[in-house]
Amino acid sequence: MNKKIIRNARIITMNERLDILPNGNILIENGKISAITTQSLEDTDAEITDAEGMFLLPGLINTHTHLPMTMLRGFADDLPLHEWLTGHIFPAEARLVTPENVRIATRLAFIEMIKSGTTCFNDMYFFEDIIAEEAKNAGIRGVMGESMIDFATASFQTVDEGLARCEALIRKWQGDSIIHPSVCVHAPYTCSQATLQQSKQLADRYGTLLQIHVAETRQEVEDITARTGMPPAEYLHSIGLLDRNVIAAHCVWLNPKEIELLARTGTSIGHCPKSNLKLASGVADIDTYLKAGITVALGTDGTASNNTLDLVEEMRFAALLAKVVHYNPEAVKAQTALRMATINGAKALGLDTITGSIEIGKRADLILIHADASNMLPVYDEYSAIVYAMNSKNVRSSMVNGDWIMRNRIVCHVDKENTLEAIKQLSGQIRKM
């Protein structure tokens, strides 16, 4: 139906005023929120959902993923990043990353993300045209781009071929209602200056996002400094890669000058606390980054280094780790963590005019959370309950662009049984390699 009404919800808007409506109703028309009120809404042409006992939130936004790596969940655990990446992941990907395997693994990722409240993701991988197709079929909002890197990959053999794939993805999907093509360049330690700058020029030409890994480990900082005379973020600034259309993933090891550079250029950060912990990369000082004026959002990274796509967990880890870094329980409060998972994510991806908060005129990217669940009660503070008590199973239903993508824990547009069977068969093949 083109019209939907959600009634009797406790609406957590995440707007600038952080308004909360204890017993609110919203009207959705043609995918957009057209009314938010505590008054009764009546429309005989509308589909009605009674959300008594539910929180209504903007959907969660995962700003850094490698979705098809679900096929490598648990494949090479408990290793340092560079050994893990170059000794295990890159060789495995050379054998396993095929169009069909990417399709299967992406469907599995969508099931997991949708069931844990994510309505928008930002992906960097290979065969992103397939990921875009699957996202469209699943109904989930996605930002995605082919991962540019200086060696041959499963989807391209040369940098020029990779850039051509990037541009083709942009030209095909730009202007779509839920698919937002972008440009991704892997990292300053895997890409030459020419590759980095060509990628930025492509993003600027089409007005898209550029995604890159930055300062994830101390080794990266040491290697880039030895090669360029500057640490990673400072080097990227010197060649024109820090900008308002750039999101830098991880940023664990930024020095004070680099923090100031990101803040001044409007570069955003995709913070991945669990992945950084598992790979022993370190703990990013996001409280300092936020206070410096940087937009910090949340990401899960891929499931080979996390091993989940559950943004509910990332919110909690982000808040708790920041407190330990500063020995300060007031660092990154629950409200801030939820902002990072919603409106900050939208800002970081350049989508804050259409999603990330519940406001009239924005797209209806929404989730319903069972606030009366035993693990949530009693609720003295909504933000505290969501960040510190909630788990992903409390997410009951979700919609994107006004269309339900999960109802009462049933994912609507991805065949769960066939996907699980396909991934089991694929994992059996991987074990034999």
UniProtKB/TrEMBL annotation:
Substrate binds at E93, H186, E216, D301. Catalyzes the deamination of 5-methylthioadenosine and S-adenosyl-L-homocysteine into 5-methylthioinosine and S-inosyl-L-homocysteine, respectively. Is also able to deaminate adenosine. The keyword Zinc applies. The lineage of its organism: Bacteria, Pseudomonadati, Bacteroidota, Bacteroidia, Bacteroidales. Keywords: Hydrolase, Metal-binding, Zinc. Zn(2+) binds at H64, H66, H213, D301. PANTHER family: AMIDOHYDROLASE-RELATED DOMAIN-CONTAINING PROTEIN, AMINOHYDROLASE SSNA-RELATED. This is 5-methylthioadenosine/S-adenosylhomocysteine deaminase. The gene is mtaD. Residues 55-404 form the Amidohydrolase-related domain. It catalyses: S-adenosyl-L-homocysteine + H2O + H(+) = S-inosyl-L-homocysteine + NH4(+); S-methyl-5'-thioadenosine + H2O + H(+) = S-methyl-5'-thioinosine + NH4(+). SUPFAM superfamilies: Composite domain of metallo-dependent hydrolases (SSF51338), Metallo-dependent hydrolases (SSF51556). It comes from Odoribacter splanchnicus. Its EC number is 3.5.4.28, 3.5.4.31. It is an enzyme of class 3 (hydrolase).
